[in-house]
Amino acid sequence: MQGIRKFTEWITTLFTVVGGVSLVIMTAIACLNMCMRLLGQPLAPAYELVSYLGAVTVALPLGYAQLKKSHITVDILSTRFPAGLRKIITGISLVISSAFFSIAAWKVGQHAANFWLTGELSETTRMAFYPFTYVVAVSCGLMAFCLLVDLATLVSRPGGGNQ
């Protein structure tokens, strides 16, 4: 279990770093576009590039946020439950969430494959959609995997307790 956890931490950290680089590039493009607008020469592809990079920036760190418990949780009721019941509810929640992200990865992957097969390109830059769409699909798949790793960790932990 420790090996899987270490690998998951490594791959999610890598995805997060790439997402951070994407954020920096996205910010640079937006700032450059603002400066160029002042000179009367806005960057034509700025909107498209920022949109693509925005998807990458948001999608890539999903798994890392799950492993580090950076997402919000609402536990007003669950804190009053006995430890065993909390563990069961958390397990059910992890299974449902993993199923959701698995389906999302599959459906987004189908869209990416469709973009690839049809050769669909963006209007301004004539750039292909599918690489960015595949990144989102893989990120959803990694999120589903991280949720399953959390489930395995929860199940292997002796006694009650919450995540």
Task: Tell me the layout of helices and strands.
Layout lengths: L1 H37 L7 H14 L2 H6 L15 H36 L11 H27 L7
Helix pairs in contact: 1-2, 1-5, 2-5, 4-5
Low-pLDDT segments, ≥5 res: none
Number of strands: 0
Number of helices: 5
Tally of separate domains = 1
Describe the structure using short key phrases.
163 residues, elongated, mainly alpha, 5 helices, single chain
Describe this structure in words.
The protein has 5 helices and no strands. 74% of the residues lie in helices and 0% in strands. It has one domain. The mean pLDDT is 91. Helix 1 runs antiparallel to helix 5 and helix 2 packs parallel to helix 5. It is mostly helical and 163 residues long.
Gist of the model:
This protein is an all-alpha fold. It has helices spanning 2-38, 46-59, 62-67, 83-118, 130-156.
